[in-house]
Give the backbone structure.
Amino acid sequence: MSLNRDEAYSDIAYDGKARLATVGLFADLHPGGGAFFLSGGAYAGKRELKLSATPTANVEVGAATYTPAQVGRIDGVAKLSNLQPFLGAGFDNTYSGDRAWGFRALVGVSFGKAPKVSLTSTGGVLSSDPTLQANLRAEEAQAREDAKDFKYFPVVQIGLTRRF
C-alpha cells in the first residue's frame, strides 16, 4: 500500500510518501471452544515514510532560521520496525454451530520500536555546513520524540465469513 500526503511539520512543508509492504502470521486460540478467541502473531515487512521539502520561504531548522538558498532541498525517511508483534481478542462464530455464514470481529494492537528518523539537506549553499547538520540532527530528535507514539497501531477487523 502507498499513500501520498502533503503536511507541514516544524514550519517546513513536506511532500510525504508512505510505502507499506507487510505480511502477517497469526494464530487464534478459542478457550472453551466457543466464539470468543485470543489472537497473537506478527506483521513483518517494509514500512517507511519518505519526506521531501523544497522551501520557498525562510524556514526554522533546529535552533536557526535559514533561507531557501541555504538549505536547498530537505529529504527525510521515517522507518518503522520491520517486525511488529500483534495481540488481540475477538468473536468468530464461523465454526460454532452448523450454519454456513458467520460473523467475525477482532480488536487488537500491534507494537514495535519507535520510528527511526533521518533528515538530509542537498543543493543548498550550507547543505554541508556543520551548524546546519547539527540543526538537522536536532530536528530528527524532535521528530523521533513526536513520533514515539507511532510504535502502537490499533487493529480493528469486522467481517462476514462463509463456511463450505
